[in-house]
Amino acid sequence: xxxxxxxxxxxxxxxxxxxxxxxxxxxxxxxxxxxxxxxxxxxxxxxxxxxxxxxxxxxxxxxxxxxxxxxxxxxxxxxxxxxxxxxxxxxxxxxxxxxxxxxxxxxxxxxxxxxxxxxxxxxxxxxxxxxxxxxxxxxxxxxxxxxxxxxxxxxxxxxxxxxxx
Amino acid sequence: xxxxxxxxxxxxxxxxxxxxxxxxxxxxxxxxxxxxxxxxxxxxxxxxxxxxxxxxxxxxxxxxxxxxxxxxxxxxxxxxxxxxxxxxxxxxxxxxxxxxxxxxxxxxxxxxxxxxxxxxxxxxxxxxxxxxxxxxxxxxxxxxxxxxxxxxxxxxxxxxxxxxxxxxx
Lengths: 165, 169
Prior knowledge:
The complex is a heterodimer.
Chain A: H1 2-18, E1 25-26, E2 44-46, E3 49-55, E4 60-68, E5 75-82, E6 92-93, E7 102-104, E8 110-111, E9 116-124, E10 135-144, E11 151-163
Parallel strand pairs in A: 1-4, 3-11, 6-10
Antiparallel strand pairs in A: 2-4, 4-9, 5-8, 5-10, 7-9, 10-11
Chain B: H1 2-28, E1 31-34, E2 41-43, E3 66-70, E4 76-82, E5 86-87, E6 93-95, E7 105-111, E8 118-119, E9 126-132, E10 137-145, E11 160-166
Parallel strand pairs in B: 6-7
Antiparallel strand pairs in B: 2-3, 3-10, 4-9, 4-11, 5-6, 7-8, 7-10
């Protein structure tokens, strides 16, 4: 009988162990991005917008940013957090502290000629952080740093975050 | 003994039932979606020299001197900015975010069709063009607001950056 009790308690402990909460998160959704053939020799990024919903302190959201080098030679890219110049309706510019919540898996990827690569972007809000606003926006900018000259181009993905009520 | 077993089973059921909502919370709470769009632009010109600049002047490029090709799959906003707060070379120039000339202080304006009505700023950049349709080119021009006085005659330089982002909703 005692063995039965021990067994029941052990199973109970195992089940309660399985229930330990991890960081609430949303896993990346899509598979590989297939670009139209006409973009083969153009440098591009995808997606244009990432929408995060029900976000809250302690939560994590991830999405892979796809970068394509449209040049016939290797190119070094810089991937960085950027404050938006303007924002979508209903959103505010994220405060500078949000920069510390963004993790860029590879901020300086070197892409071979016509290579396409994913760089994982994660937004991790600390448990004790205060919500900047109900809706806020920041950008992830991608620049080919092998560009020379006075006029340079940069591409950016918008991250639009809506906090949980 | 039977009471103890019943109590233990009840306790086990409680633990098991308490575990269910925790699983739901961790995996269903945050939602992430993305638009399946591609952002891509190129610009026809990579540099411009204003030549020998005279104080208190506003030299410009030719009308529609440069063309942006928007190869994106969606309409985009093209933001224009400078990447530093100063112009490099010798005694640096301060870049004016109000396009106001001063001693060793210069500004830039941009626009299209020969009109330069958009200030090129370092902080809080402006859109050169908003909601540029996919596949549509956009030609633009650039104007220097030269300083009111110079300390030296060393060539100055600043980088102008065009940033493409999916158009605001």
